[in-house]
């Protein structure tokens, strides 16, 4: 059987990592714009250093990124050549509402995305739109404290009403928040959270998460009211946790770590907070800002499908086991798995873990899944014609596509589609680098913003075209 008929093959990007045009078309500034390249990036995205404006001391890659704002027609044409059935992209909130709290939207921003969606349909590509891919307008952070303030639920509702109304008939697949669990690990990048000295940061993060969950439920309800054809999904940074050993402490640590990531999706997909999570907050003395009607509203407005990103599995270790080595350069702490190879950034490569993750999520939620990020970040070395023979990327992706086929065909997991991450080279969210490339299309731009921005298909471009044309049956390739 293999992949089902109508399987949605495609690629994924985020506005803040590819769009650029940060000060064009009436767009306002957002948290994702002011995160710089360099050693201060990680302290800023994790909320350890407050930084809400540009300065002369840093380079800000999101300002221009790969300038898709001016190149989207060229880029979507290339996606069409590969045969994309869907293209996952995100809306820049501050392009629609520059400050975030205006009563009326910015028409220039709305027109930009309308033109982009029409360009997708020109090539038979169905847009899959992330409403908020980490974006939070700076004004909302300064004026209201960001998602710690319940008023943001109303501002988000204003945004989604405009989007669902304006793009009715153009977009039917929506994601409410990208990697919603990232709010716990990178709170400024994930949700624009900043902290004052002495502030209870755990309370702030759980409060903000509750507000995002309410906003997601409102979006789901409104989407279905405006257009019954709309399909709304949640999204998490997904991966199974392996215990480092069969020591009971390691096994329990893996179980606990997995539940930490699940709880937000439990609310969006099942409609209620899990009891283990509420008991944990009780022990910590943290009271969620739950108002009358919140829990019933969450229960009544669950998502239609569950989407997730997958790059690597993770390994957990108990408190009584300190003789371990951790992986490098990943927002999620993980012990190094000695049985796996690693990418140049220390992310461990595990196709079977992808199949396990698919099964784990489907077993838990019994809802259709959508793989909206998967890929290999690597240093690409182009030849004199800007061509990249990225056999390493094809090898990674072929094995993951094969594992996904097994999950569908052998295990019976229901999967709607697959959008590889960074289908065109873009700025890395974690490091801010351009040299950490994921794409099938090489973009001539370096870490410091130099380059012509010329687009050149890589070897993987034709490989993925073959995969899509065969509906995932032909993942073969020949090494150069």
From TrEMBL:
Give the source's domain of life in one word.
Bacteria
Family per similarity comment: Belongs to the glycosyl hydrolase 1 family.
What is the protein named?
6-phospho-beta-glucosidase
Q: Which GO CC terms are listed, alphabetically?
A: cytosol
Keywords in UniProt for this one?
A: Glycosidase, Hydrolase
Q: What is the lineage of its organism?
A: Bacteria, Bacillati, Bacillota, Bacilli, Lactobacillales
Gene3D superfamilies, alphabetically? Glycosidases
Protein EC: 3.2.1.86
InterPro entries this protein is in? GH (IPR017853), GH_1_N_CS (IPR033132), Glyco_hydro_1 (IPR001360), Glyco_hydro_1_AS (IPR018120)
Q: Where is the active site?
A: 373 (nucleophile)
Q: Which PROSITE patterns does the record match to this protein?
A: GLYCOSYL_HYDROL_F1_1 (PS00572), GLYCOSYL_HYDROL_F1_2 (PS00653)
GO terms in the biological process aspect are:
carbohydrate catabolic process
Give GO terms: molecular function aspect only.
Answer: 6-phospho-beta-glucosidase activity
EC main class here is hydrolase
């Amino acid at each position: 059987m293999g992949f089902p008929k109508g399987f949605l093959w495609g690629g994924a990007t985020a506005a803040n990592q590819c769009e650029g045009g940060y000060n064009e078309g009436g767009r306002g500034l957002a948290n994702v714009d002011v995160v710089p390249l360099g050693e201060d990036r990680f302290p800023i995205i994790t909320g350890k250093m407050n930084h809400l404006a540009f300065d002369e001391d840093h380079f800000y890659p999101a300002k221009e990124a790969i300038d898709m704002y001016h190149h989207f027609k060229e880029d979507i044409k290339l996606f069409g050549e590969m045969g994309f059935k869907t293209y996952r992209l995100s809306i820049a909130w501050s392009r629609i509402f520059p400050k975030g709290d205006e009563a009326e939207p910015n028409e220039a921003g709305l027109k930009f995305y309308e033109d982009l969606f029409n360009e997708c349909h020109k090539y038979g590509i169905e847009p899959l739109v992330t409403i908020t891919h980490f974006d939070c307008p700076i004004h909302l952070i300064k004026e209201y404290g960001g998602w710690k303030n319940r008023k943001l639920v109303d501002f988000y509702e204003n945004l989604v009403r405009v989007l669902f109304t304006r793009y009715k008939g153009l977009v039917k697949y929506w994601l409410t928040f990208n990697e919603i669990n990232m709010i716990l690990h990178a709170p400024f990048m994930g949700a624009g959270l900043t902290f004052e000295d002495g502030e209870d940061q755990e309370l702030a993060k759980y409060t903000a998460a509750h507000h995002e969950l309410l906003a997601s439920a409102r979006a789901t309800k409104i989407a279905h009211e405006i257009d019954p054809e709309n399909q709304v999904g949640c999204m998490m940074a997904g991966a199974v946790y392996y215990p480092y050993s069969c020591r009971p402490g390691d096994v329990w640590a893996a179980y606990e770590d997995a539940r930490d990531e699940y709880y937000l999706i439990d609310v969006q997909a099942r409609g209620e907070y899990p009891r283990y999570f509420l008991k944990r907050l009780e022990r910590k003395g943290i009271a969620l800002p739950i108002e009358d009607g919140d829990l019933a509203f969450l229960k009544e407005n669950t998502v239609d499908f569950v989407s997730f990103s997958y790059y690597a599995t993770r390994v957990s270790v108990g408190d009584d086991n300190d003789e371990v080595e951790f992986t490098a350069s990943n927002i999620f702490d993980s012990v190094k798995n000695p049985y796996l190879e690693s990418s140049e950034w220390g992310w461990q490569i595990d196709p079977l873990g992808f199949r396990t993750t698919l099964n784990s999520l489907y077993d838990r939620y019994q809802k259709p899944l959508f793989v909206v990020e998967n890929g290999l970040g690597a240093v690409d070395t182009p030849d004199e014609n800007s061509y990249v023979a990225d056999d390493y990327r094809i090898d990674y992706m072929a094995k993951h596509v094969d594992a996904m086929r097994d999950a569908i065909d052998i295990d019976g997991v229901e999967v709607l589609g697959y959008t590889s991450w960074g289908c065109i080279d873009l700025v890395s969210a974690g490091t801010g680098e351009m040299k950490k490339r994921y794409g099938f299309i090489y973009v001539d731009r370096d870490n410091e913003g130099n380059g012509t921005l010329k687009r050149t298909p890589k070897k993987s471009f034709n490989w993925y075209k073959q995969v899509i044309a065969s509906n995932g049956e032909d993942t073969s390739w020949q090494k150069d």
